[in-house]
Amino acid sequence: MSTMRSAQILASALAEMQRFYGIPVTGVLDEETKAWMKRPRCGVPDQFGVRVKANLRRRRRRYALTGRKWNNHHLTFR
To answer: In this protein, which residues make up the domain named Peptidoglycan binding-like (predicted)?
Structure first.
C-alpha cells in the first residue's frame, strides 16, 4: 500500500471518529481528537467502517484449485 493511500485511509478514519464523537471533522489528528482518544470508552465497542465490514464478509481464499480432483471417496489407513 502506498504512503499516499495510507494517509488517505488515516484521514478517513480520523474523520469518521470525529463525526462519531461530535467534534469538528477535520480528518487531522489535532489536540481535541487526541483528548477524545485518551478518554476511557467504558465498554463501548470500537467502530469499524463499512469498508472493513465488507472486507470481512468477502475473505479471499488462501489456496488455488489446480483442476485435479481425487475420485476415491473410500479411504483406508495402513
So the answer is: 6-37
Q: Which domain holds residue 8?
A: 3-57
The pTM assigned to this predicted structure is: 0.53
Q: What's the whole-number average pLDDT of the chain?
A: 79
Is the Cβ–Cβ distance between 15 and 25 less than 8 Å?
yes
The domain that contains 42 carries what CATH number?
1.10.101
CA distances from 50 to 16, 41, 78 (A): 11, 21, 51
Q: Which residue has the cell 475473505?
A: 59
- Cβ atoms of 26 and 36 closer than 8 Å: no
Query: What is the pLDDT at residue 6?
Result: 86
